[in-house]
Amino acid sequence: MPQGLPRKIRYAFVTQGLLLTLAVVFGVSLVALFTRDALVRQWLMVESEAFWNRQAGEGPAIVPPATRTLQAYFRPAQGGTRIPPYVESLPEGVNYIYRSHQAVLVQRRPEGVLYLVLRTATVDRLMGMSAAAMILLGLLSALAITSLTYRKSRSIVLPVNRLADQVARWDPTHGDLTPPLAAASLSGEQSREVRALSQALNGLAARVAEFVQRERDFTRDASHELRTPLTVIRVASDMVLADPTLSPQGRRPLERIQRAARDMEAVIDAFLVLARESAIAPVSQDLEVAEIVSEEVEKARPLLAGKPVEMTLSVAASPHLFAPPSVLAMVVRNLIQNACNFTEKGSIVVKVDADGVAVRDSGIGMSAETLQHVYDPFFRADAFSPLGKGFGLTIANRLVRRFGWRLRLDSVERKGTVATLRFTPEASA
To answer: Is the CATH code 1.10.287 the one for domain 172-280?
Structure first.
């Protein structure tokens, strides 16, 4: 998350600044126009009152004023004075001719008609300069207010962004009970609400880390405790199976017990790997993928006993991988066992190529909706099947992500499934 105001808030401030600028320019221009018209009107009224007062004292012989800015025309009631046509045609009252910067006052009285033509170029220039100064002052004020508001909003929002960034980067699976949400890393200008939020997040982080650690400890301890009875079961079944006098009827259930014990040991191993995933990395070594896959294929063949299903192994390449052998075996075993459990007839093809392993079956397949939930714990494509517990793919997927591999499932309902394990990351695929 960027350390600054979110983009929407920035846009809001920019929009606010533009609207405020338009409001200042329009408002000042309107005020300047009304002020100019009022000033010109007052000027004309004063000049007309002075003229009529003089006319009352001096009689019709009075000479109308004529200056650089004011030109007067007077037509007595008897007529006879020549008036410019564009002035004579104007109605009574104050008329503004903006194109030529003129204002014309027409007054009719029993003594005659008075025409006052005021040149407003100087007034317009002065009012324009005043309006420009007012607009500049208004824009500077608006800029100052917007800048102060932006800085204040930034000082409020930025610590929240930093908290959100730290929360996004925090990984509770690291097992550190000290959460990386240090309030000292925030800006000094923190509001009381931001400090309260920081403290609440620190408390939440500590509780989550404690919960994760407790769950990891339980998984590790429970897995270790389960290993002992499983070892006893496996050793005892091995001893009984070694008895040459054992009947075929007694051998079959013992073999099933052995397979179940091995499956449970694999699950426990997976739990131990996941429980230690941040503290103790499993021991890795250089291994041959085809060899481990071949072993898992042979171990899974008894699952197809009595089924018209042919399982074949195709080795197109023999890649080497530096990884824990037990982890690779767990993932491959899970994929092959799923194919065996949900394929009643047809074929299962396990293929090893230069970049991974693919398991293709002709089993029941899965719909698009089912594929969206295959990694959910305790979810099974066939809810009525007694095979599987519903968390095999969940464990396999976590192990795959733990070591930077990729697992992909492609399936068509009632036609089969292809499970593909790749050892290269997505970016280099």
So the answer is: yes
Instruction: Give the residue, 324 or 188, on which the prediction is more confident.
Output: 324
Q: Which residue has the tokens 């040991």?
A: 265
**pTM, two decimal places:** 0.49
Domain with CATH 3.30.565.10 in the chain: 283-428
The answer as to CATH 1.10.10.10 being correct for domain 283-428 is no
Return the pLDDT at 179: 46
230-244, 257-271, 296-310, 335-349: least confidently modelled range = 257-271
pLDDT band for position 275 (cuts 50, 70, 90): low
Q: What residue spans in the chain does CATH classification 1.10.287 cover?
A: 172-280
Q: Is the pLDDT confidence value at 177 over 50?
A: no
d(CA 121, CA 102): 8
CA distance 95 to 104: 5
